[in-house]
Amino acid sequence: MARIAYFYREMSEYIEIDLRALAERHEVTVTGCPSRFVNPLRTWRTVSEADVVMSWFASWHAFLPALFARMQGKPVVLTVGGYDTACMPGIDYGHQRGGFKSWVAKRVMSLATRLIAISDFTVRELDVMGFRGERVALIPLGLDPTRYAAREHRDRSLVLTTGGVNRNNLHRKGLEPFVRAAALLPERRFVVVGAWMDDAVDHLKSFATPNVTFTGRLSHEDKVAWMARAAVVVQASQHEAFGLSLAESMLCGCVPVVTAAGALPWVAGGTGEVVPTQDPGAIAAAVDRALARPASASEAPRERILAEFTVERRAAGLEALLASELRVAPSSAAKQSGRGDRSAEEAERHAA
Questions:
Q1: Which residue segments constitute the domains of the chain, with CATH numbers given?
Q2: Phi and psi for 182 in degrees, rounded to 5?
Q3: Given pLDDT bands bounded at 50, 70 and 90, which one contains residue 348?
Q4: What are φ and ψ of residue 264, in 5° steps?
Q5: Which of 144, 195, 222, 323 is 20 to 30 A off residue 67, Cα-Cα?
Q6: CA–CA separation, 27 and 31 (whole Å)
Q7: If you average pLDDT over residues 27-55, what whole number do you get?
Q8: What strands lie across the sheet with 155-162, from one edge to the other?
Q9: CA 310 vs CA 56, 140, 230, 275, 305: distances in Å
Q10: What residues have CB less than 8 Å from 26, skipping those under 6 apart?
């Protein structure tokens, strides 16, 4: 058992997944850092009581913990992928567009003894930034299959996309192209699943056709209910470090329609349709092709997630990496199944 000091800025579902997995095997002290002004004394004490420091995202919240850990001779494990590794000036997205935020992100990554990339796309982004080889471990995100149910009978006219409805996501997550594609398929039902975070929903409603539904914020159970009913999920992003909501929908049996952006084609794994751009016409045509597939087409997306992106595989990868960093033998929990062995071996191959 290791003592882990875990620092985060904003809690999210993928951080919660990691914390649950780590807490099963280790003593985890979790510290939220919503402000840039971290308490140095408290941070030093927290780090001094830990064997390893972990954080998600290379930003301000991770700087002092990483610096103090290195000063104390302790390993730093940092998961990256998303805003911290992105460089998309066209949509004003990503720390790597330059400036002081870019320096901070790169400095935090430089302090880390191990960088966890959540997709092959993030590995490539890190390579461009000069982080490669032994320091980078590819450990994809994982889902708990027991929290996602697939239905045998689905609504063969139901198409959904998921994501927070805000101005930034209109194009970064492809919400606007999705709604515009709905106008080209009036006989299909399009659903935007996600909380209304600003006036973006009013913008979308201003041109949405009657076949579009906006759910607003939903519980996990209600979100999964929509995913289990739908036949197709659309993820028309411009940048996606992984695509957790895409994986959730696939686990529920949705056939994916994705843009050729970031990790989306990799996560979809050939189980659906890939469009080159966010063009609404191309998205509508791909949705039609996906809906024309037989009902059995829902099996391949689910099997893809069960084979490659489960919480067990994520946990096994984290456990193997921590064992490498702390120079101890991996726990038996990291080898619960053949899939777990494979994750551990992959993590060791990339990280050690």
A1: 3-142+310-351 (3.40.50.2000), 145-307 (3.40.50.2000)
A2: -60, -35
A3: very low
A4: -60, -50
A5: 323
A6: 13
A7: 92
A8: 212-214, 189-193, 155-162, 230-235, 255-259, 273-275
A9: 19, 9, 21, 26, 7
A10: 1, 2, 3, 4, 322
